[in-house]
Amino acid sequence: MVAPELSAGPLNLGTPQLQGAAAGVEVSHQKRLGIAGWLAIGWLGLLVGSAILAPILPVGSPTHLYLDFAGDGPGTAGHILGLDTNGHDVLAETIYGARESLIIAIGAVSAGILVGGSLGLIAGYFKGKIDLVISMLFDILLAVPALILAMSLSAFLRGDPSQGAGLPVEIILVIALGIVSAPPLGRITRASALTWSERDFVTAARAQGAKSYRVMTREVLPNVLPAMFSIALLAIAVVIVAEGGLALLGVGVDFTTKPSLGNMIAVYAQSDLRDHPYLVFTPIICIFLTVLSLNFLGDVIRAHFDARETTL
Predict the structure, then answer these.
(1) How many domains does the chain fold into?
(2) What does the alpha-carbon distance between residue 312 and residue 299 come to, in Å, rounded to a whole number?
């Protein structure tokens, strides 16, 4: 029997069925976003763009009073979403409120990634006792209900108001919610780092004498970042809701100085829910669409990179 001739060309995937399946994986990745994904991107782009450009948009100031039309609903002349009972433009309040909520959420998640992600990367790479200590710290923080922990941290950081001005409320919320978001972000990072630390290219880098810091930052971290980015989108959505919950409990930004989506709901739900329900539903719908879009995009990114890893 004559042995089959070996080809020097590129590696063959095998049967045509396997080739078709591999091609199908590639095509499914490209089509995974779909209409819903583009709608989510469009909404987030509109929201973030409006928040960034708020000072130059023709919506006026959220603290300006239009007393002649106070309490008029959507469609009022010059006010698309109407006015609240105090005479503030609801569209301006919503745009500036979304801006404030996004600043707090992105700041808190960034702090959570910086702290929790770094600890999770160290735990997943070194393993052993270091992993045990860091994991116990994450477990202790996760054992405390997130909203109670955020309230306690906010009260502690705020201190005694009679002793003079302390940190701005926004900074306090960023720190408190950042500490709350650090454990779940750290756990996800640790799990991903555990997997990537066992790959051959990481072992090869260690065998060549590369220092641990270089291996973590040059070999492991770039592969862990997609998982961190995916969970960060979900964390931003959770923090936006948490900020609203803290506002309802009276631990949030002062509505009279800076509106946020959370304190808009807190203020309007107490006084204007029956006579002016649109005032409450406007920030609620904004939060709903934002959280839905962030969750959808986070799932798409996670699914994309999970499938990509299976082809490596």
Answers:
(1) 1
(2) 20
Is the pTM higher than 0.85?
A: no
* Domain of 286, in residue numbers: 34-59+81-310
Scan for tokens 């995916």, then name that residue: 230
Distance separating alpha carbons of residues 31 and 45, to the nearest angstrom: 20
**The dihedral formed by the CA atoms of 60, 64, 65 and 69, expressed in degrees to the nearest 10:** 10
**Do residues 139 and 208 make contact, with C-beta atoms less than 8 angstroms apart?**
no
User: Could you tell me where the beta strands, DSSP code E, fall in the chain?
Assistant: none
State phi, psi for 71 to the nearest 5 degrees. 85, 0
pLDDT per residue as tens digits for the range 218-267? 889 988 988 888 889 889 998 998 988 888 888 888 887 888 988 888 88
Amino acid in the structure at residue 241: V
Residues in contact with 265: Cβ distance below 8 Å, sequence separation at least 6, in sequence order: 244, 247, 248, 280, 283, 284, 287
